[in-house]
Design goal:
binds 1,3-dihydroxyacetonephosphate, 12 helices, eight-stranded parallel barrel, alpha/beta
């Protein structure tokens, strides 16, 4: 089964609303590819203005996080129905920065992923090992527990709506990129795990993105790996030129 490539830009805690709308405009006007999905993931405040500004463009919009309840007395949270109504189509779940700084657990990832599905959003579950876990040869064990926890209780029909992002923590924002072989190996492991947990059809149709210091110079090599179905880009997504350069390299 052929999987459509996705190039996603996670803007993290960067850009004012005005800057975000301007960047979205630069990406939309420079986009010369229709054969892949392009997703931008602004901060919450900029999400609706960015989505509105992209309404006549194929560029999709996603949320960086999602709370697991749909509404209620949860000060400071943002829900699935709110994201959907603001124009989001995707939501990141379990980004390593959420796991590292905000106490995200396998259980809360699973709750958030289910909240996204309930709201009609496509979750992107982020997984990846730290440097010390890799050095201790624990990479596959970490990926296994993050997949098992995040995807607990999911049916095959729901899994078809889920994207996985492999983001080795040691490669995020460090300028260190996984080698093509390291990415290929991790992606093959993730796809094999999905096949064992669901079936071959689900495994073959699940999109698995790579993230971690992707830039226009290294994108082609990573995206050429057969198990790598796109990129989740941080720093290099903050300038239209470099993000478009990654899209062109794909
Ligand atoms: P960098 O591309 O800045 O390493 O960030 C990757 C990332 O965390 C995307 O979600």
């Amino acid at each position: 089964m052929s999987r459509k490539l996705m190039i996603a830009g996670n803007w993290k805690l960067h850009l004012t609303v005005e800057e975000a709308v301007s960047l979205a405009g630069g990406i939309a006007s420079g986009l010369a590819r229709e054969d892949l999905d392009v997703l931008v993931i602004p901060g919450f405040l900029a999400l609706e203005p960015v989505a509105l500004s992209l309404s006549s463009s194929p560029v999709l919009v996603g949320g960086q996080n999602i709370f697991w309840e749909d509404q209620g007395a949860f000060t400071g949270e943002v829900s699935g129905p709110q994201l959907k109504a603001a124009g989001a189509r995707y939501a990141l779940v379990g980004h390593s920065e959420r796991r590292q700084y905000f106490g995200e657990t396998e259980k809360t990832c699973n709750l958030r992923l289910n909240a996204a599905l309930r709201a009609g959003l496509r979750p992107i579950l982020c997984v990846g090992e730290t440097q010390s876990e890799r050095e201790a040869d624990q990479t596959e064990g970490v990926l296994e527990s993050q997949l098992a926890g995040g995807l607990a209780g999911l049916q095959a029909g729901q899994m078809e709506l889920v994207t996985i992002a492999y983001e080795p923590v040691w490669a995020i924002g460090t300028g260190l990129t996984a080698t093509e072989e390291q990415a290929a190996q991790a992606h093959a492991y993730l796809r094999g795990w999905i096949e064992a947990r669901f079936d071959k059809g689900v495994a073959n149709s699940t999109r698995i993105l790579y993230g971690g210091s992707v830039n226009p110079a290294n994108a082609a090599g990573l995206l050429n790996q057969p198990e790598v179905d796109g990129a989740l880009v941080g720093g290099a997504s903050l300038k239209a030129d470099s993000f478009l350069g990654i899209i062109q390299a794909a």
